[in-house]
Amino acid sequence: MNKLKRYVKETPHIRYSNCHEDSDFALQNIKGKPEKILTIASGLDNSLAFLLLEPRSVLAIDSKEAQIYLCNLKKCGIEHLEYEDFLSLLGIGKDNGGQIYSRLRPYLDKETVEYFDSHLFLISEIGIVNCGKFEYYFQFFKKHILSKTHSKKTVEAFMTAESLEDQNEIYRKKYNNLRLRLLFRIFFSKTVMKKLGRDKECFAYAKGGLSAGLKDKFDRCIECNLNRDNPYLQYIIQGKMASLPTYLVKENYLKIKKNIHSLEVRRADFAEVMRENESYDLMYLSDIFEYMSEEETSFLSEDIYRNLNKGGQVLLYNMMIERHLCGKLRETELDQDKNRTFYYRHCYHYIKE
Ligand SMILES: C[S@@+](CC[C@H](N)C(=O)[O-])C[C@H]1O[C@@H](n2cnc3c(N)ncnc32)[C@H](O)[C@@H]1O
Known about the structure:
Blueprint: H1 2-7, H2 23-29, E1 36-40, H3 45-49, E2 57-62, H4 65-80, H5 83-90, H6 97-104, H7 110-117, H8 120-126, H9 133-145, H10 152-160, H11 164-175, H12 178-187, H13 190-196, H14 214-224, H15 231-238, H16 250-259, E3 263-267, H17 270-274, E4 280-284, H18 294-306, E5 308-318, E6 330-332, E7 346-351
Parallel strand pairs: 1-2, 1-4, 2-3, 4-5
Antiparallel strand pairs: 5-7, 6-7
Helix pairs in contact: 4-7, 5-6, 6-8, 9-15, 10-11
The structure holds S-adenosylmethionine (SAM).
Residues 15-16, 19-21, 40, 42, 61-64, 67, 269-270, 286-288, 291 line the site of S-adenosylmethionine.
């Protein structure tokens, strides 16, 4: 934990080693079969999940170099490794990730090898799924705060209940206590998130923290989704994923492996890619507009419209601030309760008609 604490202060460091955006929710809400997809890479998990749609191409971009090294590692791992070895590479398999990395090393590009050779402990000690700054924030949260709010027995019962009725009864009677409510106020405040989890640039346009309204969203998420099937919540509350995110489910992994040649990972800024005037059927844009002003968002809305094919779609998230695409795109209603990543205020879906 101390090594990771030092690492996340280095430049460059991995910010997100997983995507904390619900890929099943995204897949459920994509209409039809997009052939050409543009995604914000982050930890690459959702870009990989979109390969299940068997598109002609997925271009996964990220402006941060360490994210690209991570994505190259994951992509190359899927290309060359069997399922169990890939899990070990990520730090959730039977073998040590370091051994698997040395086998994969000859297939990796020079920059990615240089990065992980000089940060081998991320693979062999910390585990790739735990090595980003955001993951460090969640681990800190679990170790120092969450472990003091409920007994192990309550957590276990809450996270493994077999029906929504049982889960909600445990929530009402045991889990939803005063300490939990206080924790929501403190942990998701702007000050704490800024210090531990997210970069300063994420807050340039944010007025408050996440706290307001978040507890209600959490309540709804618990009401509507089984915790035992929610790897995102498991990671926050238990520090590990007892169920796997979409791209890591074995049958999905095998399909993704078959289509991995359709994925390109590129270091680029979204605005730069928009200037290439390539057209796409789907743009998956994470919450990148939170880093931008309303003017920039509105400017990019026009580029997005121009670069979408007819019937093309956009999915984007809002966490701390409201950012909408404007212009001629039609917004469609999504059932937000099905989104297992409750910490987003909203996921927006747009269509070019
Ligand atoms: C917007 S952040 C949010 C992460 C997300 N909430 C999650 O948990 O997966 C996702 C990624 O977007 C990248 N990013 C932010 N703005 C970008 C831009 N304008 N162009 C390309 N990548 C961008 C960041 O480097 C980061 O890796």
